[in-house]
């Protein structure tokens, strides 16, 4: 993921402080009490990483079997694979079967809306591709988690009526989070308020993206008592900083959980994905320690510390 990427020599100047909660968050959580058993999902955006061979995938694993191995380590995936084309039902059934046969927990796929809908049609006259998309992902069955609709950088507040109209015509029971990127959604107070009030009214979530170069996307607005966080780490050389950022998220989530947060979807990205399982494992450790999340730790083939040491030698 290159979104929000900052040159390595500029990272020291980035303020990674998590902002205060937004106005909509207070309204969403007002009067809520802690739920008995909140849900926690941690995953990556892709399973097809050759760099994970001999790390979490056995050395001779074929690429066609990477998903079989991925589901043994994680309980979810932010599924970007369906963004590039509308998936066919047969492919979704194939992926579901891999989860059925290999997952060690209640695994969920969180599929991204296809770009035909979001970026090419820009939500207009998109009924046919939307119906095809929804029919296909329905094949995930019990393995279907919330979907997320990512809008392009040029989809700004002037399109809010288009967005609202599109969301109103989606199935009411479709779990959905929306990610916006145009800077005016965050810099224009009126546009910001209208967006998050609308999402709350329609009971749709708002994706929070924590990326080094786009701190405005860290809006801290909850429109439903669930969160979908896309965390973009900065790689092995900045691991201590990334771990500290995870610690800060744990602190903030503790506050939200105390006020009725029901579900957490936390997806790890890095500009270089080779060490993402290490970052994900640290996140799992902290969730288990502070929230009693009950997520199985990642089973590394080689000790992560040794992997880091070996890479430092080259």
TrEMBL record:
InterPro entries: DUF72, UPF0759_sf. It holds the Pfam family DUF72. This is Uncharacterized conserved protein YecE, DUF72 family.
